[in-house]
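Quick one:
INPUT:
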C-alpha cells in the first residue's frame, strides 16, 4: 500500500493515526493489568482502519458500502469500550482517543450517507 493513499484519503489517515493512539493506550491498560478491556478495545479500534483499507479495493459500490458500514460498527464498539474506560475507576484518561474517534465517526457518517445516494 502506498503512502500517498493515506495522505490523500482522510478516513485512512484518521483511522491509522487512531490505531497508533490505541496501541499506546492499550499498552497503558496492559501495564495497569486491564488486559481484557485492552484486548477488546484493541481489536475493535484497529479494525476500523482495516475495514476502511479493505473498502479501497471493493469489488462493487455495494461491497464498498458494506465494508465502510463494518468500519462504522467497529467505531461504535470502540466508543463503548472507551466509555467503560472513562467511567471506570483506575483507568487512564482516554479523552484524546474519544475526540479522535468522534472525528472518525463524522467522516464515516459522511462517507456512508454519500455512498448510499450512489
Amino acid at each position: 500500500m502506498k503512502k500517498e493513499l493515506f495522505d490523500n484519503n482522510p478516513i485512512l489517515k484518521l483511522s491509522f493515526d487512531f490505531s497508533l493512539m490505541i496501541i499506546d493506550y492499550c499498552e497503558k491498560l496492559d501495564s495497569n493489568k486491564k488486559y481484557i478491556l485492552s484486548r477488546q478495545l484493541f481489536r475493535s479500534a484497529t479494525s476500523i482502519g482495516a475495514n476502511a483499507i479493505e473498502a479501497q479495493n471493493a469489488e462493487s459500490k455495494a461491497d464498498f458500502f458494506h465494508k465502510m458500514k463494518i468500519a462504522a460498527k467497529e467505531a461504535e464498539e470502540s466508543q463503548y469500550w472507551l466509555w467503560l474506560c472513562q467511567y471506570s475507576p483506575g483507568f487512564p484518561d482516554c479523552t484524546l482517543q474519544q475526540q479522535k474517534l468522534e472525528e472518525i465517526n463524522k467522516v464515516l457518517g459522511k462517507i456512508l450517507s454519500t455512498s448510499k445516494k450512489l
